[in-house]
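Why does this matter for the project? Reviewers at the last site visit asked to see concrete outputs rather than summary tables. In response, this paragraph embeds two records directly. Each consists of the residue sequence and, immediately after it, the corresponding structure tokens. Nothing has been edited or filtered.
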Amino acid sequence: MRRAITLILDGLRRDFVTPELTPRLAAFRDSAEWFSAHRSVAPSVTRVASSSVATGTYPAAHGIEGNALALLEAGRLTVHDVGLPEFLPHRRRVTGHALDRPTMAERVADHGGTVIYSNVSPGAAYVHDPDGHGHVFHRAGSRGPGRVDLPPLPVKGNIDGDRLMTDQFLETMLADETAPAYGLIWMGEPDTCQHALPLGSPEHLEILRAADANAGRVIDAVRRLRDRDDILLAVGSDHGHQTVTAVIDVVGELERLGFGAALAAGDLVVAPNGTAALIYATERGRDQLPALADQVAEAAWAGEVVAADRLAEIGQDDGRGLALYVSMAASEDENSYGVPGLSQAVKPMAGKADRLGCGQHGGLGRYEQSPFLMIEGDGFAAGAARTEPTSLVDLAPTILAHLGLPAEGLSGRALSRPS
């Protein structure tokens, strides 16, 4: 039977895949094909990345524009945290859909089925199958076909939780009769620790090596499974991290620039996304956008500013009110542990921590936009390196091609070579 498995190590940047830091992943390069120009999405955050992996499309198509985003409700823009378990049902009530494009779980439902194990935020887990076509297992609650409630994963959101989740994932994938055609395991580390620790610190590197060892368990299991099945194994990450040098109150900065009235009226809103800000506008607020874009572009805290007429270049659009994507100021300078990549960050939503000197992501900085990808299996050359640009949206068509299923309506392309 043809099957596919995807393993994601959340937040692991490409330059950390080395024999010293991640020996199991580095060794896997010898048997897999390495994609040296792999990129994340914009913003480079997990809930958007998960939606793009699930659908094979960019945010403009699937509708999840950020970790935090705005919905137009009763004529007013309201910012929501996509990571909350109740967000997708709320989006379905407001817009008619949890996601605006079909997921891999839907596409594979009648062709062997899908199982997802995830140890990131609930919202990032549930976007892989919001409509109940397969199985999703998460510590906040699990779901079976038809969105039937199942017991939550008995794990915590840390490296120990990743290990326990991997035990259950491998038990599922090793089952002789009931193993699904497609399995995805999305580990929370090293992203979780990188938000709380300086990149390159001894504590960070310890967890990095533990995450690598856990990945090695999945690689070993897949090799055992190949005695009976033709398995495609994709191993990668969704984004990287950069070190936070300053936390900016973007709402306060926009008020200082003269847009306080529009913000107070709800005609402009800011959705914080780590090292990026999404600025939304109602129809009433749109006449202020040219001046807003010009003034934000001149601000010392802003890096690249992408206005509505250029949003398509980063896989976004203005159809749901998004007006500006702001990647915060960044550099390739080093932090105190010699790790390159510094960024300013946006003051987060209430109740969320803003940590200086630790990792963050969301923008267009070099290292946050440098996830890694390796694929082993039919159509991929062992030890080869591919230099053409690839993206998270290429995973779904690649897996569908291996499974022999159609892949219409996707943004990405199958990466396998002809047999």
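We now turn to the second protein, recorded in exactly the same manner.
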Amino acid sequence: MDGGYDTGLGEVMISTDVIEKCAGASAVECFGIVGMASKNVRDGLAKLLKRENLSNGVSAKVEDNKIKIDIHIIVSYGVNIPSVCDNLLENVKYKVEEFTGLKVEKINIFVEGVRVID
């Protein structure tokens, strides 16, 4: 379901695809995050997505104009995962709310893998 609001002159509807792309782009800006992950259901391996597929590691749902987001990430080896996730939560929440004008109710983060960066 898409979210939206009434402007007085008409309605503005925001697709969940747009929300997912915004959340994915905001996530990869955060320190310690190597990229978005997509679960390969066939063999259970987390796969690093290319930049053009950022929304594949994110799913968003809109209910009563409140957004719920699931983000699947791969982190850099040696980072403090709770600190990276706190930063990710704040960054994604701020940018999605600022971008859409809708309230983010919940963000679930799934750390799917760790990569060693040279």
